[in-house]
């Protein structure tokens, strides 16, 4: 779905109070292009971040060929985000530079690896091969307003021909993508998070796959990628709660909120586990403080506070990789950094991961990131009647928007 709708929706957000808040209803940002106080800064910032996210995903898809290295792909995606973001808002606002760039590190997770894989230069894994299932995950922000997305593809033997995809892979990919679409449509003002969880599980059951437990959809605010409100893909069992899995508190969605609609599904048990791959993605816990003892630990924390004070980062971004690897342990053990571990499924499981960003506008929920599912993902399985109805409505809405956009383009060309 196109991200153009987020920019055009700026006029939909009405005037409210002048209280400083961090969602779409903020009224106090000054757009350096418009030179006046306007909601357009918020909508345009997210629109621009969304365009960069989709551009990075498209570029990475083209680079996912036989022989490509995961490390090089992560660097390539990061370069796209940083270079494109650097072109925007180059003038200072109120005497300060507008922060912009990576909001979530580029991660490339292959086959049974579910998410969060962003390797270091010293730990490169084997290159991509034909038939590999690749999950791309990344985020961009403009002035702290975040857009994220994830996408799944299969590596082809040749760039000129589509990959060969087995039935299991087709089932899980279609299930994850459709669950993302239906979940996104279900996140609207007045509905509750457990209703979205039910929708996701209904889709998973129809396609005979499992949603990945512990994966969460999160509300996003300015410089906050994982807000308090969240949605579980499936409710934890009593056994999982005993093992440390947290139960998600019930919440109600409200207008002007922003969410990352994150769906990962598997042909396996749907129970993620850690493996041999090193955890390299972390986020500063801004509420924690501790006087670190090791020199390398103080180096890590100093760099984080300076360069990554609120949003997730990867150790690959540090100049001194060795010091970063040595120092991060003490920071994590004292709660200064929150790890995003590399999660695995069973070795023979097929995993698909799709993610998009949605805005809860007065006109309804608008999806601003995420690419169309590759058409080589096929399945003979049919979703339940309610899911079919929602998917058909979304398809008709997309067709209307495409026709309207084409007519507008034709009219503009004629004049």
Mean pLDDT: 88
Overall number of strands: 17
Distance between the termini: 27 Å
* Number of spatially distinct domains: 2
Low-confidence stretches: 1-21, 26-39
How do the helices and strands follow one another from N- to C-terminus?
HEEHHEEEEHHEEEHEEEHEHEEEEH
Q: If you consult CATH, what is the topology of the largest domain?
A: Creatine Amidinohydrolase
CATH architecture descriptor text of the largest domain? Alpha-Beta Complex
In CATH, the homologous superfamily of the largest domain goes by the name Creatinase/methionine aminopeptidase superfamily
| Helix proportion | 25-40%
Helix vs. strand class = alpha+beta
- Major sheet characteristics: 6 strands, antiparallel
CATH class identity of the largest domain = Alpha Beta
Compute the CA-based radius of gyration. 21 Å
**Which descriptor suits the 3D outline?**
globular
The fraction of residues in strands falls at: 15-25%
Number of helices: 9
Write up what this structure looks like:
- The protein is of the alpha+beta class and 415 residues long.
- It has 2 domains: 4-276 and 342-407, Creatine Amidinohydrolase; 281-337, Arc Repressor Mutant, subunit A (Orthogonal Bundle).
- Helix content is 34%, strand content 20%.
- It is built from 9 helices and 17 strands.
- It holds the Pfam family Peptidase_M24.
Summarize the structure.
Belongs to the peptidase M24 family. The chain is built from 9 helices and 17 strands. By secondary structure, it is an alpha+beta fold.
């Amino acid at each position: 779905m196109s991200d153009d709708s987020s920019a055009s929706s700026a006029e939909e957000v009405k005037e409210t109070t002048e209280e400083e808040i961090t969602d779409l209803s903020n009224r106090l940002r000054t757009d350096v292009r418009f030179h006046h106080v306007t909601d357009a800064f918020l909508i345009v910032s997210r629109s621009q971040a969304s365009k960069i996210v989709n551009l990075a995903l498209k570029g990475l898809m083209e680079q996912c060929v036989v022989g490509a290295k995961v490390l090089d792909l992560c660097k390539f995606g990061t370069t796209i985000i940083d270079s494109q973001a650097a072109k925007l808002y180059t003038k200072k606002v109120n005497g300060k530079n507008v922060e912009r760039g990576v909001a979530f590190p580029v991660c490339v997770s292959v086959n049974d690896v579910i998410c969060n894989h962003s390797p270091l230069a010293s730990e490169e894994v084997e290159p991509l091969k034909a038939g590999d299932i690749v999950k791309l995950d990344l985020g961009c922000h403009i002035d702290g307003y975040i857009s994220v997305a994830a996408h799944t593809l299969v590596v082809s033997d040749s760039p000129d021909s589509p990959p060969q995809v087995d039935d299991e892979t087709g089932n899980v990919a279609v299930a994850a993508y459709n669950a993302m679409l239906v979940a996104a449509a279900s996140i609207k003002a007045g509905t509750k998070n457990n209703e979205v969880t039910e929708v996701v599980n209904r889709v998973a059951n129809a396609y005979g796959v499992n949603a990945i437990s512990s994966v969460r959809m999160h509300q996003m605010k300015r410089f906050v990628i994982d807000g308090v409100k969240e949605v579980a893909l499936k409710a934890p069992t009593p056994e999982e709660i005993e093992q440390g899995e947290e139960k998600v508190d019930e919440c109600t969605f409200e207008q002007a909120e922003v969410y990352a609609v994150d769906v990962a599904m598997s042909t396996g048990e749907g129970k993620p586990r850690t493996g041999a791959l090193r955890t390299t993605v972390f986020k500063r816990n801004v509420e924690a403080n501790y006087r670190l003892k090791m020199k390398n630990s103080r180096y890590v924390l100093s760099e984080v506070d300076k360069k990554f004070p609120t949003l997730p980062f990867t150790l690959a971004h540090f100049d001194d990789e060795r010091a970063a690897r040595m120092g991060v342990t003490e920071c994590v053990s004292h709660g200064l950094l929150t790890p995003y571990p590399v999660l695995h499924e069973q070795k023979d499981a097929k995993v698909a991961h799709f993610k998009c960003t949605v805005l809860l506008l007065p006109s309804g929920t608008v999806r601003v990131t995420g690419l169309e599912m590759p058409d080589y993902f096929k399945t003979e399985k049919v979703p339940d009647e309610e899911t079919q109805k929602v998917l058909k409505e979304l398809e008709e809405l997309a067709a209307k928007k495409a026709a309207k956009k084409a007519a507008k383009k034709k009219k503009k060309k004629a004049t």
